[in-house]
Amino acid sequence: MSAGSEPLSISPGDCWASRAFRHPSFLAGAAITIMIAFMAALSLVWTPWDPTAIDIPSKLQGASPQHWLGTDQFGRDVLSMIMRGAVASMAVSILAVGLGAGLGVPLGLLAAQTRGFADHAIMRASDFVFAFPALLVAIMLREVFGPGWINAAVAIGVFNVPVFARVAYGAALPLWTRDFVLAARVAGKGPSRITLEHILPNMVSLVIVQATIQLSLGVLAEAALSYVGLGIQPPAPSWGRMLNEAQTFMALAPRLALLPGFAIIFTVLGLNLLGDGLRDVLDPRLARER
Amino acid sequence: MACGMFSTLAWLGSDDVALLDVEGLSLAINNIPLLDRVCLSVEPGQVLGLVGESGSGKSLTALSIMRLTPRGARAQGRILFGGRDLAALPERQMCAIRGREIGMIFQEPMTALNPLQTIGRQVAEGFRLHLGLSQREALNRAAGVLARVGLPPESIPLSRYPHELSGGQRQRVVVAMAVALEPKLIIADEPTTALDVTTQAQILRLLRRLVAETGAGLVLITHDLAVVNAMADHVAVMRGGQVLEQGRAAEFRTGARHPYARALLDSSRYAPPRRAPDLKAVTLLEVEGLVREYALPRRNPFRPAPRRRAVDGVSFAIRRGECLGLVGESGCGKSTTARAILALEPLQGGTIRFDGRGAANLSGAELLAFRRRVQMVFQDPYGSFDPRHKAGRIIAEPLRLLPDLTQPEARRRVAAALEEVGLAASDASKYPHEFSGGQRQRLAIARALITRPDLIVLDEPVSALDVSIRAQVLALLADLQARLGLSYLFISHDLGVVRAITDRVLVMRDGQIVEGGETAQVLQAPQHPYTRELVTAALRLDRAVSPQPDLAS
What we know:
With 290 residues, chain A is mainly alpha-helical. Chain A has helices at residues 16-21, 24-45, 78-114, 116-130, 134-145, 149-176, 179-186, 191-227, 239-246, 255-282, 284-289.
């Protein structure tokens, strides 16, 4: 028995669905993420109250059958605001991750494929972007291009590009030394075709895992931008701005700050658990080695 | 006696008290039975060769004796060692035995050694742990042990780290750790499989000497029958978790009783029937003065980077229908040569002529036309397949070199290639991991055959395979060559395999070819000193490891 000489199979035929159903953090993460996504989708067609409707007479109420989570200083329904706030978080972080992965992964693959000059140019450029404090630059970009959720997403997405470029580059380099790539070259395939047919499919699981982690970071970044007033603009509700506005009423109604805070924590936790679980489920080798 | 089936063997009934007696050892991991009533016996100063193919349970037997089985393992049976039953001993007492009374040598020295500790500290560890010596005393004792295994502190200081040593030196450190406390029993699990043949002979000679000097028993686990022949006093053959046969090594060599043991012996000596080469055949590939240089990392930013010649002026020719062997130890440049011929690596010098036309530094359509006629088979069949593609797609990959091929014709070719290598056409819809090791190498050969090439470069095609499967693949290669008139460039470090299948052989060392000629002639009467060393270490291992080579011959 030569233990470890047989490579563990990582093929799709190895029934990753059955692994997923036995993986607790994947299940928990997926459940939370689906719940948040469902809440966001539902809020587009139905919320208990209009999240923007001001009703001063019933301001700062506690939980009641009419307002399950109470109302804020303008009498808006907190539950409705949190539900609609999920839309803002999700939209911004999904767009930011899409932008980052859409530009970063091809750049990383290109760097790994060409080596030489392009390799150095791409990877040093990502080092350059990494050298800037992300949030400050996002605030600066917003000042230049004006507020709005698309601009917020672009500002966050710019900093996702080097992250994905590095992940793709790091995953692709060892694949390029594998014998099956050599075999593909013997079969007459050019480098671009090898990247598309062999490198990309074999590293896509890593990109998916990184994407869920960047999603959770995107949620945090969106909340931070909204908190300083540069994210979603009023009257549309957002978790970050709810936190900001609740500051004044901390002593009077602490739940106004706690509820959006919990929503952020819950979402980030769910996405991180999902990412952890996905890593183990999509690539069982990583799970056994860690 | 628990081991009734072996009690008739004369040597078990001898008066010597056995050092280790494994009686009816069964082991299951997660309720999957892996060992089935294993019985073994080792006497002091003797070597027991434990032979079997991968998955036969030989390593698991060793781990069971050391009580190092993985989680979820349940063992039954008795392991008698010095009057105690190791199977029933509490873990605390077992810790005192491991390293102190039973030493273990592992296959891969690089992973068995701690990369962050000096070799002196690692060998000294046993003295501190079991004898309670101070660091200084322990290091003194370690220096003595390292000197005994051929690493005198004058030339190899104790302060060296594992990565600063060669593979053979590292394995000497592992041996030193195992024998430091003069254990009564040494278990060596494939101690030389990761080493080059000449280094293997040195390590085996060292183990021999240590056993003779200390009177310890040695359990030598190996898949290599040549190693067993050279080393063992007794042999036990395992398959499927059972010991099939056990007896004196001399008897085993001449008259193995169990059919499986006989088959194992036969396949290790297997040479496929081959036609005599046609000496008047035209030259197919001609290589002259091939040079491949690498730039090493710069030492000084103001000087050009130092360069290393992996292939240094290599010249040879292959005739049509011929099988040319290229042998050498790891790092000698044989694989680089192969890749350079296939234009997988750029050349810094030399010419390649294929079928009368220049073939060096080709590009574009010419390169595609060349690759259609020259294909390659890699050592690790699993690594050379994209794990996400099905067999049919993998085999069809080189067909893109034939752009005129229609879809149905391509499908017919895939089916034909699969059948040619002894697989079924329906196997095309399986994934690589669904095949066994031997089938995977057949798949790799099918992929190389599909463009109907003239020359196939085989880079260690059977090195990763068990002996019985190796024999089958060699037979397939010989058969294909005869039927399709193929030429082979057969790269291997294994002279036994080279002897079985090649017509001519080239011996390579440090990027240069030191000797070449008819295979039988080169292996019978090697001229170059390095070839002589290689041939002795590989084909006359028994002589190479005996303490006095002159007396033995």
